Amino acid sequence: MASNSEEMQFLFCPQLLKDLDFSKSVASPSKLSNNLVLRPLRSDDFSKGYLQLLAQLTQVGEVDEHTFKERFNQMKANGCYYITVVEDLNTGRVICAATLFTEFKFIHSAAIRGRIEDVVVDSEYRGQHLGVLIIETLKLLSKTLNCYKLTLDCRDEMMKWYTRLGFNAEKGRSNTLCIRFVE
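Now predict its structure.
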């Protein structure tokens, strides 16, 4: 059992992940090799290469450790962020990550919407079904959090992969429009 000071370093309570029922899922943390662990993002993951992992997905920019911890604390205080990672305990590196963000709505009887963002697997670990595991984890977590729907945006070449995991382009809603204020 983690002490309060240890638990405070997690973005969200690790018990949420431990309580997920993977029995009907195509992936499970129990199938991970002993050196890999699925867990919430921690405040010390700056030193475990979390930002370098994100850089394999998109531009991260200049983020020092102080800024990382400041943003981590803001996300933790907000309570709507569920960044989940896989760490390789042999190397001490974060090698897979994805974000579940929950949004409170007035529609659907004041329901919660889930949104998946920033899904990435380290290039050295691809092909081990870690992406499937992280998506299955966030799907189960969104159900546990009582989300009425779960959405994500992806590149065209990833559509088939996400479709195999149960996501569908909704007729008449398959376009994502965006205004970028920073490239």
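Helices lie at 4-7, 15-18, 50-54, 65-78, 107-110, 130-144, 159-164.
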